[in-house]
Amino acid sequence: MSEHDRIRELLALAAANALTAAEEKQVAEHVRSCIACSNELEAWQPIANELRRLPTPQPSSWLVQATLARAEAKLTEQAEHDWNRRVMIAVVAFAWLLTIASWPVFHSVSGRFGSLLEPQFSPTQFGQTWISFAAFTALGWLAGGVAAVMLAIRQRGERRLA
Amino acid sequence: MAVDADVVRLRRGDLNALSELITRYQNRLYRYLLRIVRQPAEAEDLFQQTWLRVVEKIRSFDASRNFDAWLFTLARNLAIDHLRRIRPQSLDEPLANSWHSETVADRIPCKDHTPLDHALAAERRTEISEAMAGLPMMYREVLSLRFEDEMKIEEIAQVTAVPVSTAKSRLRRSLEQLRYALEARYPGGTWQ
What we know:
heterodimer; A: 162 residues; mainly alpha; 2 domains; B: 192 residues; Rna Polymerase Sigma Factor, Chain: A; Arc Repressor Mutant, subunit A; 8 helices; 0% strand; globular
């Protein structure tokens, strides 16, 4: 490809101000000495100018308001969701803490505190203790789970009504 | 690049920042979507969807990056998905019939001095609008981003997810196609 052809390919982009500084310089130097390319560059200018002057269609104020309302509702919903998630994490962490802390309390109340460390500790006794403890914990978790599900259903219903 | 304060506030869940951003970008975004899908009702729907997607994804957006390019990329992806679903052929094919719907903005007089100048300018705008609307989607898009949104080639490349060299050659081809369309539609006119 000759220099002339290469520059000619850049003329549309020159009218669009989309050339690098080096390319701009090459085009400027070339069109000074080439009438054909100079005319061609001139022919591109009205097209580029009219494209820049095209009227901007504007969205209706109703559309903007409706978009804002929907986006705000979504943002609020997301914030609420985040808050619920943080609360859920805190509640789960607290529940685990409570479960772990209740282990020695449970043993202390049932008079078996420290039995695991005793040399005469029997696996049967450990099994019974473990089953009662597991049942006690599972009941707590079940109640918590049911409450969380009920709360979520209620919130969803309220959101739908809103 | 300066970090956009409204974007940072929106990331924290500030409703006022959302309002500021919608107000700031409403015209550019709506125009871009309208250039892609060509139907005002579809552009309106996509406009809403784009802002909902912004709210959904804003926390994954790096505030030090270019928000314009990110916003237009979201809008573009939604528009292309929409076109693929509704009118897959419209992604490549030019418009069959002559399309131009005059809006209020079209009737706003510009800085022309005489009624004749005004009439000629309005005619040229109509001609170029119609010729542009008849181009394939990727050419309309790149023309709109360069001339109406005044994006740099690098930004256009980012929005359209192509290398800079591809964006540049696409812009050149779109201008050539537009010129051919103008010359074919209006032989002997001011475009030759």
